[in-house]
Write a structure and sequence with these properties.
The structure is a homodimer of 257-residue chains. The first copy, chain A, starts with 5 loop residues before the first helix and ends with a helix. Chain A is built from nine helices and two strands; from the N terminus they run ααββααααααα. Chain A has a single domain (6-243), classed as Rhopdopsin 7-helix transmembrane proteins, CATH 1.20.1070.10. Chain A has 257 residues and is mainly α. Chain A binds chain B through residues 31, 34, 38-40, 42-43, 46-47, 49-50, 53-54, 57-58, 61, 81-83, 85, 87-88, 91-92, 94-95, 249-250, 253-254, 257, and chain B through 6, 10, 13-14, 17-18, 20-22, 24-25, 28-29, 32-33, 35-36, 72-74, 245-247, 250-251, 254-255, 257.
């Protein structure tokens, strides 16, 4: 018999379904929202929607994998024999986490040179962070989990330093009514991302059992929604504030012609 | 009992799912990115997105075929009796490989005459290359594999000669800030495509077993992502650099009005 109750199973099941619906709807919002912003910020919204699209795909797969892994027989939860594929999360993060930093860089509207160099550096660090975490996630020994987890924190700290050091000058150069939102986006990045190592190290200090498993699954799901859909709404708001109101740009140009 | 472990099976499984997500997201990026470039380069991005769309479809099918071919029973991998359909790869390449050369030709913005003649010639050579490889891929005799493989190399070498010979003058005529990227795109084509014969001939020199099979599947997958999504990003960057910055075209028109 499994330690997990039907109630816990259903809670995770509903959380996964909720995440799929939220992320899929957010995707459409960001892609349709492209027409509301200046041409130079449209790529930021394209990428923002790509992140939620990729995440919604993975929540669909995670949901399918979760339902395949368990059966309810006579009101009790039993393992079906199929394995719940937790690796979807890492496959997802490997793609989406670098893209999250790319969308922040794109909406800042830096020079082409700075966009490319910062985008590639931050993207590579984010991919490295995720890749270093995985061996620890699947490790059976606690020591191995700690070792990879700490290795993974090095690129994470480096990203934080870049966001609060290297990017500060560029943030100060943002238009006044967008500056506060860019700073918020930076904080949302750091704070929502901090949740992942908390869950990760919860495994390393030996938190186990059905309740811990439920908390981990629901926790990762909430973090994904905040870091991807919530963060994306901030990116959208920044892009809107930096775009002239509809019609204004053309009027100004016509006046100068 | 199968030689392949559950770990190897899952690694391939996750690689296929990763490829689907990457290629599907890339497709949207290229198609939405059409609005960011001049009208004359939009067809190049349409075709770039077609390539990743076709490939994402095939990775979806390959994933389904892979999961149908195996079951995990009591933690051990067993064959289900269904056959893993490797032919999806060749069906995919028959469509996508000619289109990859067409997108490179389209983004170069050559004369209509040159676009048509080079597009058809390179596309036909690429289709021939894929078609000649297939009988060797499914051959049971090593000698047959070698014979078709070598036959397939003839159009491949011809394509390389065209890219580095015939196209050189056209590349030299590209605008300065796009020229480097076009040269990079040419190299990415040749280098990422070179990976395919390496895997192909690995079969001809008798590399077999579960590890070889895992390496082949994951290797082809990485090569497909680089050659299609990665190459597509280069095509997108070339198209953006060759297009006036957003608003500039309109300003120029208004100034002339």
């Amino acid at each position: 018999m499994l330690a997990m109750t039907v109630g816990q199973y259903s809670f995770v099941y509903n959380a996964f379904s909720f995440a799929f619906a939220t992320l899929a709807a957010a995707t459409i919002f960001f892609w349709l929202g492209r027409s509301q912003v200046s041409a130079q910020y449209r790529t930021a919204l394209t990428v923002t929607g790509m992140v939620t699209f990729i995440a919604s795909y993975h929540y669909f797969r995670i949901f399918e994998s979760w339902t395949a892994a368990y059966n309810i027989v006579d009101g009790t939860l039993v393992a079906s024999g199929a394995v719940f594929n937790d690796a979807y999360r890492y496959v997802d993060w490997l793609l989406t986490v670098p893209l999250l930093l790319v969308e922040l860089i794109l909406v800042m509207g830096l020079s082409r040179q700075e966009t490319i160099s910062r985008g590639f550096r931050l993207g590579a660090l984010a991919a490295l962070m995720v890749a270093l975490g995985y061996p620890g996630e699947v490790a059976t020994e606690v020591g191995t989990r700690w070792a990879w987890g700490i290795a993974s924190m090095i690129p994470f700290v480096w990203i934080v330093v870049e966001l609060f050091g290297g990017l500060s000058k560029s943030i100060a150069a943002q238009p006044e009514d967008a500056r506060g939102l860019v700073k918020t986006a930076r904080w949302v990045t750091v704070l929502s991302w901090s949740f992942y190592p908390v869950v990760y190290f919860a495994g390393a200090i030996g938190l186990e059992g059905a309740t811990a498993k439920t908390v981990v699954q629901v926790g990762y799901t909430i973090a994904d929604i905040v870091a991807k859909a919530g963060f994306g709404v901030l990116i959208y708001m920044i892009a809107v504030r930096k775009s002239p109101a509809p019609g204004v740009a053309l009027d100004a140009r016509l006046a100068n012609a």
